[in-house]
């Protein structure tokens, strides 16, 4: 308890500049922890929803039925994101273009792939949300803390120059408050860096799965488009 009180006393007695540095680092740490928790929940839920959709998609269900089920959930207020959002974008565009008899199979599939790529870019933006802030906190917090450290030590030696007797007790408080600023900088930076690396790895996993799904789904749509155009030619 005494150590905690002494640290608190050092913070309260620090210069205004060092206190502002500490406040900045404290706020950055609090915001980064909020974003870490938010991103953790988002990636966990997104992973579960992706696996559930993949299981449903590869179960042999009719794609039109799968699309209608998504419409029903969207009508109930459910926000559809992730792999299912990419599927819905591609299937919607495929259904629209397939009705145009003058378009060949290649054009239909190319249009569907473009729609899925646009949806995939939107999903990448959702995955990247807040990661840039975590990267900024991780890279800048040690330097902000170092600035507070330099400022505190500078004030300590300036006070030492005006002191009649140079002792360790004279400069110890200023150096202590300076080192606290450094510690706070590391306290803010380390979790942000670890979380950023973890989430960046998760994001790469999601993007790779999305990219694979686009290729696999395009192959399925190509077969359907080819069969549809063959029926149209026979009917004509």
Automatic annotation (TrEMBL):
Residue stretches making up the MotA/TolQ/ExbB proton channel domain: 83-211
Primary location: membrane
TM stretches of this protein: 16-37, 131-154, 174-196
Membrane topology listed for this record: Multi-pass membrane protein
Record carries keyword Translocase: no
Listed InterPro entries: ExbB/TolQ_transport (IPR050790), MotA_ExbB_proton_chnl (IPR002898), Tol-Pal_TolQ (IPR014163)
Keyword terms: Cell cycle, Cell division, Cell inner membrane, Cell membrane, Membrane, Transmembrane, Transmembrane helix
Intracellular or extracellular location(s): Cell inner membrane; Cell membrane
Superkingdom, taxonomy of origin: Bacteria
GO BP term, example: bacteriocin transport
Keyword Transmembrane helix among record annotations: yes
Job description of the protein: Part of the Tol-Pal system, which plays a role in outer membrane invagination during cell division and is important for maintaining outer membrane integrity.
Subunit relationships: The Tol-Pal system is composed of five core proteins: the inner membrane proteins TolA, TolQ and TolR, the periplasmic protein TolB and the outer membrane protein Pal. They form a network linking the inner and outer membranes and the peptidoglycan layer.
Family as reported in the entry's similarity comment: Belongs to the ExbB/TolQ family.
HAMAP family according to UniProt: TolQ
Name of the protein this chain belongs to: Tol-Pal system protein TolQ
Species in which this protein is naturally found: Kineobactrum salinum
Lineage: Bacteria, Pseudomonadati, Pseudomonadota, Gammaproteobacteria, Cellvibrionales
The encoding gene: tolQ
